[in-house]
Amino acid sequence: MGDYVFMSDINGISQVESAIATLSREDLQKVLLTMVQSHELQSMAVLNEFFKTTKAEEIPSMDKQISKIFVSIGIPPHIKGYQYLRSAIKMCVKDTSIISSITKRLYPDVAKEYNTTPSKVERAIRHAIEVCWNRGKIDTINNIFGSQVFTRNDRPTNGEFIALLADKLLLDDCHE
Question: pTM of the entire structure?
Answer without folding.
Answer: 0.63
